[in-house]
Amino acid sequence: MWHHFLLVCVLLSSTIGQQSFINYLLLVPAQIEHPSTETMCVDICGARETLNLTVTLHHGTQDSTLLQQEMIPPKLFKCVQFMSPSLNGKKEEVISIHLSIVGPNTQLSESKNLLVRNMGSFTLIQTDKPVYKQDETVKIRILTFNRDLLAVNDTCPLVEIQDPKQNRIGQWLNLIPDKGIIDLSFPLGSESQLGVYVIIAPNAQQDFHVLEYELPTFEVLVQLPAVVTILTETILFKICGR
């Protein structure tokens, strides 16, 4: 996403023993979202010697190398893609990107901060039916997706079921979705309480009912004329359902 840009400054550098001007430009979004794939570009010109170029992303105690390459004078333009780092449940976090250019007579480095924001996700909980009888099994499906309607496979820390008295009667911890979907099942006992049960997940909840119910019976009566011939173009009939 290129709606926000970070331009790391153009530096004029003097090398030992000779006057050399190296211009470099690091282009990366100043604000990135998780989860997303971002692009980082480096443009260097004016080099008069072989240089080693390294671009590193610093996130807490973790470092990831985005680019490590030997540059042959006089110029280089390179773009690479990288995955935005996970925020571990945080809404946003400041990380840094570091550029290093090293040669026999050159040593340049620059660090800048980036803002990483959680893209936000939406969770839907669905049961295979809204009403259950005692001793049946509740089948549950949980779907998490982002605002671009792409499945999110982040770990779900807790899913729980509460009975009509708000007692926790079941839970699952640290669930890992498969293509954004979590499938669960919960068996109801033969003496389960009647009433409304609630399934609770991060940012979503869904209820279902446990009732003593019987499938409704109905009948349909059709009244047709006693005789219908091949010459009859229209017929009058009555249908009654109850």
Give a structural overview.
The structure is a single chain. The protein is mostly beta strands and 242 residues long. The protein has strands spanning 6-8, 23-28, 31-34, 37-45, 51-59, 62-71, 75-83, 92-103, 106-118, 121-127, 131-132, 137-146, 156-162, 168-175, 181-187, 195-201, 204-210, 220-223, 238-241. A five-stranded mixed beta sheet has the order 3-9-8-5-6, with no helix packed on it. The chain has a five-stranded mixed beta sheet with strand order 11-17-16-13-14, with no helix packed on it.
Keywords summarizing the entry:
242 residues; mainly beta; 2 domains; 5-stranded mixed β-sheet; 0% helix; elongated; disordered N terminus
SSE diagram, text form:
Elements: E1 6-8, E2 23-28, E3 31-34, E4 37-45, E5 51-59, E6 62-71, E7 75-83, E8 92-103, E9 106-118, E10 121-127, E11 131-132, E12 137-146, E13 156-162, E14 168-175, E15 181-187, E16 195-201, E17 204-210, E18 220-223, E19 238-241
Parallel strand pairs: 3-9, 11-17
Antiparallel strand pairs: 1-2, 2-4, 4-7, 5-6, 5-8, 8-9, 10-12, 12-15, 13-14, 13-16, 16-17, 18-19
